[in-house]
């Protein structure tokens, strides 16, 4: 009995140790660290080990993936602690120092989750798709413009492909690419790695050279804001009436609908699908990454009423839209799978051809969207 | 006696209150805040009021300008505190939560002082020089390149003036503009506002349209790094042998020396002066903002030995360099005034014409350098 108990205790200790206490000791500084910083680190299991000097603090936690992990204080005043293994890809996180939720001073900062804050990269099995490689590189430019609709200065980022600078008169097709809720126009060319993805795809001739425009999906008329409450979005008007004409004026674009694509992630998928269906004369390609316009509903879609009947004539839509593309991570939470599933069912019922892609092992996060762009961009402007 | 004491106490309280306790209550959210954040705030005296929720913390400080200001806890767990009045312009700062030095979650983040961290803007009397105005705007592009010298990927930022996108064949002069120590290539087009400054100067025809290239002044050969210790800088070779040819290839530049300027701040002033004097065939304009190559010395300069005798033939230098420009803030600490003063004395002794500018009421900080660029850029490429 005594021996059995001992075995039980050893087994239990072993189990706890494996699950919570003894991470594999192959931690390396994260690629998203500030220059010269050793912490945070990531190990081969995808655990994050954070560290911060806080000699007078009583309690410090690593807050990642919605879970708070207790950190412990060393004799020199440094707190250290690890998370459970995280999904591969990019995650937002923060530290909690005696109740203050703060960025980790070790990392670079990214806009997402409604704030500029820490991000960390758990290296992905297919990270070579998005890596900085020895191939010709395009450039990402910040473009400032005054919106008459919002009566405010706005900015967008524009990716131009490697040969654009040659100024040989070549004109390029354009992809309008949108972020999700609580994110902004900085995301796609930073944690989204859209520029590096296209550099790699263009170098390997998997995608045709294209311009990508990344704008801010939040746009409101001042008179609507002044009314109080949640103002209606003016983004569709800003994009269609201000941004597209500006881009076609300022860049060497091909400006017919067969050379213009639109895509977005999450809220951006919802927005861009509405914009597409209201302006089929302007876009021939659609990409919805982790979202559709029936979100958050998962009921069967009534095509008579959905988006004012835009999908009711399936054959007409099927003919007009050259690539209708949907992507989703296999670990996305409710209601994304159900909502996108109901939308796909509608497409099937209406005989509208579409591509459906699943990102293996990723949730409602950037690796799902990087992979979606990687797949989607290969299908654009080839018909 | 009792009355005198009471008067004394009241006087003393009044004095402390005026100096430390009763700021003018006209605080407004800082223009460098994250979207939607109320704190930090700045008042008309230039005081910074910070606030952070840290219900379990024992001690929270606002750390700005080398001084720590105690913050106090409200009943709802928020800490609030103010600094003394700060110089107008941009300052780096941080919060101290129970010994943890962390960015303020209320601000945007900037690279400087060796880290990505909080910055705050005390509105300047002449801020219209650098403001986003309703004028044509150039674009800032991020350019990635592989350096054979450092055997690493590097990036620079390139400002192209408003009409550059017209691609009408117009070629432009180029200013190479460098950051200071513990800063990087992101500074000039962010807290430095170089792009907005040039947009405004070009719109008012005070400066000619030009390209500005902002690279990273830290560059080392891998074999030098591997030796240990402080490696010699390879920045001069990277700039001259790699960056300039790349820019002249990728952009519509005028590539003769009379259409190429170089300038830098602090460490960048020191670096660019050396580069200038080693490559007078490549540059005709120099700008040194808060720095010179004799830094940190303030001894009389021996032109026989200084920079290998580069300034010894004053007449030849005077003829070659079309604008030799030096700027300094009136509140700069030792040894900047003395060191730049010794350098100016040498220029005078050698009969080398130069422009000397003083930024009123600013120290070794970004408002000095914004104003320096504003003045300097007006003199470029006009001969």
UniProtKB/TrEMBL annotation, chains A, B:
<dbReference type="InterPro" id="IPR000801">
    <property type="entry name" value="Esterase-like"/>
</dbReference>
<feature type="compositionally biased region" description="Basic and acidic residues">
    <location>
        <begin position="38"/>
        <end position="48"/>
    </location>
</feature>
<dbReference type="InterPro" id="IPR029058">
    <property type="entry name" value="AB_hydrolase_fold"/>
</dbReference>
<dbReference type="Pfam" id="PF00756">
    <property type="entry name" value="Esterase"/>
</dbReference>
<protein>
    <submittedName>
        <fullName>Alpha/beta hydrolase-fold protein</fullName>
    </submittedName>
</protein>
<dbReference type="InterPro" id="IPR013783">
    <property type="entry name" value="Ig-like_fold"/>
</dbReference>
<keyword id="KW-0378">Hydrolase</keyword>
<dbReference type="InterPro" id="IPR014756">
    <property type="entry name" value="Ig_E-set"/>
</dbReference>
<dbReference type="GO" id="GO:0016787">
    <property type="term" value="F:hydrolase activity"/>
</dbReference>
<dbReference type="InterPro" id="IPR050583">
    <property type="entry name" value="Mycobacterial_A85_antigen"/>
</dbReference>
<feature type="region of interest" description="Disordered">
    <location>
        <begin position="27"/>
        <end position="50"/>
    </location>
</feature>
